[in-house]
C-alpha cells in the first residue's frame, strides 16, 4: 500500500470516528447529529460564502502551521508564533500608515517586507538565546509572546489609535497597501468575502518550505540538526547558525499572518485580532505530520470546524458554543490519536495497513 | 485487501456526501414568523451582566411574541462578521449586535443587506436600517455613587472598570460626581482591567485590583467590567462579615447582580438592556421599527439601581432618600450629570 494513501487513510478514519463519538454527544444534548453535521459541513463548504470564509480562516493557520513545522524540523518547539504574528501585523500596519501616500508598487512590497522582517526578527531572538546562551526556546518564546502582545497593545493604545475611537485599533493603512480580494478574479465570488491574495501566498509558502527543507543545502542542514545535533556538528554543520536560521524562517512565516489580516482583511491593525492562531498552529503542524501538504489539510480541517461551528451554535436547537468546542476538541483528539486506530485496525485483520 | 480499502474509502466518501448534500430544515427556516438573530460580545451570554441582560430580553420576547430566536457567541473578534452574515444570508428580519465593538462590523454588513433591520447596543451608526440603542450610564452611576458615599465608613470608595475607554469613563465620572455630591472630600480610586477586549473577561485581574483598592481603604467598589467584575465580588466576600454585616461592599452593573453574593452586594447599577432589547423586537414584530439613535436614561427607567430582598437591609433609609431625591432632580433637569463622552 502506497505511503501517501496510508498517511491520508488513518486521519480520515479518525475524523469519521470522531464524528460518530461527537454524534453521540449531540444526541445526549437533544439534537439530531445528522442535522448538526449537515449544518457544520454544509455551511462551511457552501458556495461562495462558506468556502470563502473557510479558506480565509485557514490562511493564518497555514502560515503558523508552517512556522511551527520549520521549528520542529530543526528540533525546536516554537510556541512563539502568536507573538511573532502580533509584532509582524503591527509592523505591517505601521509601514502601511507611515508610507500611506506611496503607490501600491512600492507600498505592497514594503509592507510584505515589514511583516516578514518583523516576524523573522522576533523569531530570531529566542533562536539566538538558545544557540549562544543555551536558554530553552520554549520558555523564551512563551515569554516573548507576552511581551509582544503587551507591546503592540501599548503602541496602539498610546500612539497609533485614532483619537476618540472606542475600539483599540490603529488608523487605516494607505490604499496602496491593500491586496486584492479573490472576488476580484473569480466570477460569482463576491468581494465582501475577505479571502484574499494572502491565501495564495500561503499555498506558495507551502511549496517554498517544501523546496527549502528537502531540496536545498540549508534545509538539509536544518533537518540534520533536528534529527541529531551532535552528528550534525560532527558532520561540519554549525548547529548554532541552523537554530537561528530556523527560528528566523519560522518567525517570518508566522509574520505573514499580518499580511492576511492587515493588507487583506481589516486594512488596519486591530488589537487582539488573533484567535490563538499561533497556538493552533502547533496543533496544525502536529496533525499535518510536520509536512507542508499535511499542514494545508489540517488547517482546512480547523477552518471548517471554526466556520461551521458558528452555524451549529446559531441554528441548532440546543447545541451551544461550548458543545461546538467540545466537538472540535474530540475531532482533533481523535486525529491526533491516530496510533490508536492503527493498533485497533491491526487487531481486526487490517494487519498489513500497520506502518 | 485492496477491496477492503476501496470499500472503506467509498463509505467515508458517501457519508461525507450525505452530510454536505442537502440543506437543513430547522425551525430557523420557518418564514411565517419574525426571525431574530443576536450576536453576543466576546464575553458571551453567561457573563451575568451586560450580555446576560440582552439574552434575558430576547428570551422574554421569544416567549411573548411570535418570533424565532437564534443566537451566536462568536468568542473571537474574527468570528463576529461571519456570525452576523450567517443571519443576514438567511434573511433574518432583525439582527441584534451586543456591544460597541460590533458597530463597525455591523455597518459593513448592514450596507450589504439594506432590507434587513439591525440594532446595535451601546454603539452608534447612521445607516438607514440600523437602530442604535445607547444608554445614559452616567445618570444611573450618579445614583449608585450617592449610595456608595452614604454607605462608606472609610471615606474611600473604588471603581473597577473593564476596558479603559470612553464608555466606561462615563460610568466612572457619574459615580464620582454622585459620591462627591454627598461627601466633597471622598477619595475615589479608579482602576481598569486592561485596554483590549480581553479586559471584559479576566476575573482574576479584577479580583487583584479590587484587593489592592481594599488595602488602600476602599470599602465600597463599583464594577463596570463585564465578567472581570465578578473578581470584585470575590474580593469583597473574602473580607468577611462583622456582627452579621459585611465590612466591604460591591456594586454590580448592567444586570441585577444583588443575588450573586447575597449580603455583599450593596446594589446594582442596572442598565435595562433587557427591556430595550425586548422593545426593539416588539417594534419589528409590530412593523414600527425606527432606525437612528435612541437614547435611554433615568426618565425612561432604562438605567437605575436595583433594590430587592437581597439588599434591603444593606442600604440605609437615609441613603435611599438621597438617591430618590437626586433621581427626581436629574429627570427634572435640575442636576446635570457630566457625560464623560460629551455627547
Provide an overview of this structure.
The complex is a heterodimer of chains A (355) and B (343). In chain A, 73% of the residues lie in helices and 2% in strands. Chain A has 15 helices and two strands. The longest helix of chain A has 30 residues, at 104-133. Chain B has helices at 2-21, 50-64, 80-89, 103-112, 137-151, 166-182, 203-215, 230-238, 273-285, 317-332; strands spanning 34-39, 67-72, 94-98, 117-121, 130-135, 156-163, 187-194, 220-224, 241-242, 245-246, 249-254, 265-271, 292-296, 303-305. Chain B has 343 residues and is of the alpha/beta class. The interface between A and B is large, with 48 and 51 residues.
β-strand number of chain B: 14
Q: Which H/E pattern describes the elements of chain A? A: HHHHHHEHHHHHEHHHH
**Would you identify the regions of chain B where 5 or more consecutive residues have pLDDT less than 50?**
20-25
- The CATH superfamily of the largest domain in chain B is identified as Response regulator
| Main beta sheet of chain A | 2 strands, antiparallel
**From the coordinates shown, what is the CATH architecture of the largest domain in chain B?**
3-Layer(aba) Sandwich
Coarse shape of chain B: globular
Q: Specify which chain pair forms the largest interface.
A: A-B, 48 and 51 residues
Radius of gyration of chain A: 21 Å
CATH fold call of the largest domain in chain B? Rossmann fold
Give the structural class of chain B.
Answer: alpha/beta
Our Rg estimate of chain B from Cα atoms comes to: 23 Å
Given helix and strand content, the structural type of chain A is mainly alpha
Number of helices of chain A: 15
Q: State the CATH class of the largest domain in chain B.
A: Alpha Beta
Residue stretches of chain A low in confidence (pLDDT < 50, at least 5 long) are: none
Terminal Cα span of chain A: 10 Å
Helix content of chain A: over 70%
* Rounded mean pLDDT score of chain B: 89
- Whole-Å distance between the termini of chain B? 76 Å
